[in-house]
Design goal:
The complex is a heterodimer of chains A (about 110) and B (about 120). Chain A is mainly β and about 110 residues long. Chain A is built from no helices and 9 strands. In chain A, strand 7 and strand 8 form a beta hairpin. Chain B is mostly beta strands and about 120 residues long. In chain B, strand 5 and strand 6 form a beta hairpin. The chains are: A mainly beta (about 110), B mainly beta (about 120). The interface between A and B is medium-sized, with 28 and 27 residues.
């Protein structure tokens, strides 16, 4: 198994761009997925296979990858985007692994 | 509309057992692997277990291996998690999640639909 590292928190003002990173040695060889979870709600898949967005997810959410770091970018952040965000990958076992999560605060 | 409805959570004794259930609807259940993922209070998401679409290909996190058993009933579109030898650190909200393919492998082991979760508290 391996680890995915995320910053515990990110703060941004409404309308600005938030970037949440996820780092892991195996990421160049594996896809990464992103989930949003608001308090008391189920997680929601935001990004799959590094950059793909499921239907129904707003275009302001995007994913990118560079080496051992993947980034979730939220453009034009809205108050409703305040939530916990988790990256996830899977090794060859297969064992899904989640990052520790990042709390996005919209100030 | 895909729906996943968990039940069976509650208060469990250390060393005791609980059985979680997840009823699925809105998709062809037999075509997809299913998983359980948990989130402990103040912690992040932790994958617990996965099962292939035909009930084979089961996998477990090291933290629950030998104590938890995942199973499914394709006729009734149900997934189960039998939790034995409960520990305080098993306290969490447990989510039933749909995998995007028949089997969980390194390219497809992610979750496109989630239930609302059921809370398990292990305490004496």
């Amino acid at each position: 198994s391996y680890e995915l590292t995320q910053p515990p928190s990110v703060s941004v003002s409404p309308g600005q761009t938030a970037r949440i990173t996820c780092s892991g040695d195996a990421l160049p060889k594996q896809y990464t997925y992103w989930y949003q979870q608001k308090p008391g709600q189920a997680p929601v898949l935001l990004i799959y296979k590094d950059t793909e967005r499921p239907s129904g997810i707003p275009e302001r959410f995007s994913g990118s990858s560079s080496g051992t770091t993947v980034t979730l970018t939220i453009s034009g952040v809205q108050a409703e985007d305040e939530a916990d965000y988790f990256c996830q990958s899977a090794d060859s076992s297969p064992t899904p692994v989640f990052g520790g999560g990042t709390n996005l605060a919209v100030l | 509309e895909v729906q996943l409805l968990e039940s069976g959570g509650g208060l469990g004794q250390p060393g005791g057992s609980l059985r979680l259930s997840c009823r699925a609807s809105g998709f062809t259940f037999i075509d997809y692997a299913m998983s359980w993922v948990r989130r402990a209070p103040g912690k992040g998401l932790e994958w617990v277990s996965s099962i292939g679409s035909y009930g084979d290909n089961t996998h477990y996190a090291d933290s629950v291996k030998g104590r938890f058993t995942i199973s499914r009933d394709n006729s009734n579109k149900m997934v189960y998690l039998q939790m034995n030898s409960l520990r305080a650190e098993d306290t969490a909200t447990y989510y039933c999640a749909k995998v995007v393919s028949r089997y969980c492998n390194s390219m497809t082991c992610y979750f496109d639909q989630w239930g609302q979760g059921t809370l398990v508290t292990v305490s004496s």
